[in-house]
């Protein structure tokens, strides 16, 4: 098993260790964040497909209440921590998420993409962070989709986070997507590495064929 010195850990790796292993005292929190300076998560556009109906208060987006089927696509377990620039958890913050389905289409009347809808995928939910600022939800990996004759947006998931003092609209992307480098929205972030995530092997408590995604969110004051 690998061992780490705190000076070898990036901010994202510190969060990942806590999110996956559930460790609240891997090292002194203050010392850890002193070694890994935090930067606010870059903002992104809200986009035209913000849900029209109330958000489901359900952390499993792969199922629609009352339907026996399951959403198509690669199952993702998305988890992370919402903190402020001091590294303090933002407790009880509201986290709204919405996304396209595995074909690249939103369940929204303004989406004219001819890709098929998935009757077993609503594509949105609202979550509340716990006392450590953590959130978690299950979903599917969205697909890229066209936004013009020569433009394709990379796969992404939208987030809108409401802290006690701050509000942040952003988007989470996936490493290796061929459209990341040409996407104007992503590239406008500057620090694109703060928005691009990896598909990781799942811990034992998750489905063997699923993937783990860690996306940590940093607000100014919280």
Structural notes for this entry:
Strand 7 (156-162) and strand 8 form a beta hairpin. The protein starts with 10 loop residues before the first helix and ends with a strand. It has helices at residues 11-21, 29-35, 184-187; strands spanning 75-83, 94-99, 124-128, 134-140, 145-148, 151-153, 156-162, 167-174, 196-197, 211-214, 217-218. Residues 1-10 and 23-35 have low confidence and may be disordered. Strands 3-2-7-8-9 form a five-stranded mixed β-sheet, with no helix packed on it. Strands 1, 4, 10 and 11 form a four-stranded mixed β-sheet that branches. The chain has a two-stranded antiparallel ribbon with strand order 5-6. The radius of gyration is 17 Å and the shape is globular. The chain has a single domain (38-218), classed as Aromatic compound dioxygenase (Protocatechuate 3,4-Dioxygenase, subunit A), CATH 2.60.130. It is built from three helices and eleven strands; from the N terminus they run ααββββββββαβββ. The protein has 222 residues and is mainly β.
